[in-house]
Specification:
Layout lengths: L3 H4 L13 H31 L7 H37 L14 H6 L7 H16 L1
Helix pairs in contact: 2-3
Length: 139
């Protein structure tokens, strides 16, 4: 995978056209590297879980091991969901809709995308969504 833009320290700027080919490639590279890092960590987690499947004689050791295993599995589930979001973002790049809010169609914003490359809503739309969610959660 060519990560030339990431290695060169390129950062998308508001001074250039939004989602120009260079920006699109930057975010594609960023998403692919992130996905690969998660997959590498997941493989390590699997190997660790397989190695630790040894039974412990001490009850406290067994409880600690089970707690660690539960935490690892929960983390792995979150990573699986994140990979789905990364894959969806990569599909949006291919479709030409990446970087635009799903609700308003407006640009999401480079700083938000750089911080959260899987974002699908602009900051305003996300805040509105969270306020609406909070209202229903409080009922």
């Amino acid at each position: 995978m060519d990560t030339k833009l990431l290695k060169e320290g390129y950062r998308p700027s508001d001074d250039e056209p939004f989602m120009n080919p260079t920006q699109v490639e930057y975010f594609r590279q960023k998403l692919l590297v992130w996905r690969e890092d998660i997959l590498r960590d997941s493989r390590g987690t699997l190997e660790t879980l397989q190695e630790e499947s040894v039974s412990h004689a001490d009850v406290a050791d067994r409880a600690s091991s089970e707690s660690d295993r539960t935490l690892e599995l929960r983390t792995r589930d979150r990573q699986r969901k994140l990979i789905s979001k990364i894959d969806a973002a990569l599909r949006r790049i291919e479709e030409g809709t990446y970087g635009y809010c799903e609700e308003t169609g407006e640009p999401i914003g480079l700083k938000r995308l750089d911080a959260r490359p899987v974002a699908t809503l602009s900051l305003e739309a996300q805040e509105k969504h969270e306020r609406r969610e909070k209202v229903y959660r409080d009922d």
